[in-house]
Amino acid sequence: MSHTKPLACLLLLGLLAAGPGLAPPSAEAATYFTIPHGTLLNHSEYGVVSWGSGSFTRTDAGGTAVDFAFTGLSSGKMLIKDDFDVENVYGQTGGSHNADFTNFTGYALMAENLDDQTITMHLFINTGFTSGGSQQQNDTFWAGPWVDIPAGRCVLLTLDFDGAEAWNISDNPAPHTGGDLSWPNGGIYAINTYDRGEVTAIGFEVADFSDTNPNGTLRLTPRADALLAPLPPVSGPIGAGGHVDIDFHYEPDLAGPELRGYSVRVQATSALSFTDSDVTFLNPTGAADTYTDVIDNGTNDYTIDFAILGGTTGIDSVETIFRVRFHAAGDGDGVVSIAAAELRDLDNDPVSVDHSCVAQVGVDVTAPTGALAIDGGAAYTTDTEVTLNSSVTGASEMR
Question: Quick count: other Cβ atoms within 10 Å of Cβ 215?
Fold first, then answer.
């Protein structure tokens, strides 16, 4: 049996403060729609910049993923969307102009940054029929939080219909959200049922707010599974005798089943090393009775098992569920990956999880070669200050 204290979580999705009209969380399980693979890859409107400067190309990345390679990213943002009428491919109820999304409580899309610098992204929808543009006051732009996606990081982006940032809402007439109430733009509000039945655009915005990284690639995946990823995604370099601690970060399924336990197989390439003693179990719920085990599958290959025994409370929030210390073992980039992951809910039913993200650790254990020469100054002096000159030959690594 083991007992550990809860660990403060790292929340990538971003939390938004409640504002006027923010509905309490639904008692029903959240149901989020996503953009299907074929639509992301082939739909003409997801292939062009709808607003902003720059350009991009799309490439099938295999499985359900699509790579978006951007050129000309800036703080000016790049907006891409399925415009009115939206396609009837998202699982929506349908309705006039395929706009009835009242069967959903949000929108989600997974993004992985394949670049070496941060890219920032968020999701959005528009609601409100405008009768061909003559009633623009009905239109509202709803956005999820802007999320910084560091190099190599996988992030599950969401837009929650019960709390989204609204623009062009201040002139909304009834029965639209905030109708005739002059709610301020930029506030966080719940999208009412009427507007959820009039979705007129679906898309995402991408930006480089530092204005230093104009070109980058995001791998977008229409997944709504739970996410398990090693963090930080890029670290090091570490030298001989050095180590790095990697957190294994869990983000729940969008439907939010509570997690009772997991069996996760962790592997590392030869530039790194670790053993069972390097594994630290973290018990976010503070459960008094837990089962833990680490199984040796061979060099740099361990299965990490954890389960909450009895009780009715599981892991239902974004948490670091365990930590592994990796040691420097050889020159190069060490890669930490999750070869397999089995998660179970409180009823012992399997929980589908995406564990494709990896962590990369730079390692340099080779001592620099070359010679360091120091000269100058007399062999013996009574001066209070002397000048010494140094030079390095034969090695660019020496500092």
Answer: 14
Pick the closest to residue 145 from 196, 103, 186, 86 (CA basis). 186
Give pLDDT, residue 162. Answer: 94
Phi-psi region of 138 (alpha: psi -120 to 50; beta: other; left: phi over 0): alpha
**Helices (H), strands (E): how many in the chain?**
2, 29
**Measuring CA to CA, which residue among 107, 399, 135 is closest to residue 254?**
107
* 106 contact partners, CB below 8 Å, separation of at least 6: 30, 31, 32, 33, 158, 159, 160, 161, 162, 254
What distance lies between CA 33 and its chain's CA centroid? 17
Per-state percent for the chain, helix, strand, coil, to nearest 5: 5, 45, 50
* Residue 54 near residue 74, CB atoms below 8 Å: yes
Please report the DSSP string for 29-47 in residue order.
PP-EE---HHHHHH-GGGG
Alpha-carbon distance 323 to 243, whole Å?
13
Name which of 288, 287, 284 is nearest 317 in CA terms: 284
Write the DSSP symbol of residue 97. G
Consecutive 10-residue runs of the chain (399 residues): their mean pLDDT?
Answer: 28 32 37 93 96 95 95 96 96 94 92 92 97 93 92 85 97 97 97 98 97 95 83 84 94 82 97 98 93 98 96 86 97 94 95 87 84 63 68 53
The pLDDT value given to residue 14: 30
d(CA 6, CA 108): 28
Residues 6+ apart with CB under 8 A from 25: 162
Q: Given this model, what pLDDT does residue 391 score?
A: 67
Cα–Cα dist 348/373, whole Å = 67
- The sign of the torsion formed by the CA atoms of 15, 101, 40, 208 equals negative
Using DSSP, state whether 163 is helix, strand or coil.
coil
CB distance 111 to 155 below 8 Å: yes
Give the span between the Cα atoms of 352 and 38, in whole angstroms.
Answer: 21
Peptide bond into 214 cis (omega under 30): no
Strand, helix or coil at 15?
Answer: coil
Residue 350 DSSP SS3: strand
Assessment of whether the complete model's pTM goes beyond 0.70:
no
